[in-house]
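User: Can you help me understand a structure? I only have the sequence.
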Amino acid sequence: MASALKEAVKYANADKGFFGKNMKLSHDEGPVAKAIEEQTAKLPSDLFLWGGLGALVTAASLFYNGKKEEALLVGQWAAPILILGFYNKVVKLEGHD
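Assistant: Let's start by predicting it. Here is the structure, written out as tokens:
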């Protein structure tokens, strides 16, 4: 069992996978993606968190005031805003390219 684990770790740390295929990914981003990432990296991560929470609070307020259609629309903004915040955080930590 231990030798199988050692082999798996050896393959996981190598550039080639279990089937001998090259697992090293090379990906260059275009100038538009780089420009967007450079600008969004300047934004604080809390901005996205508060934006997502603000969308949820606004949706709840609209719902309780009888505006159910508007509440559904605004409530759907929370997930994309939080996902953008996650992307922003990843770009800040890992960098582009």
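Now, to help you interpret it: The two ends are 38 Å apart (CA to CA). Residues 45-64 form the longest helix (20 residues). Let me know which part you'd like to focus on.
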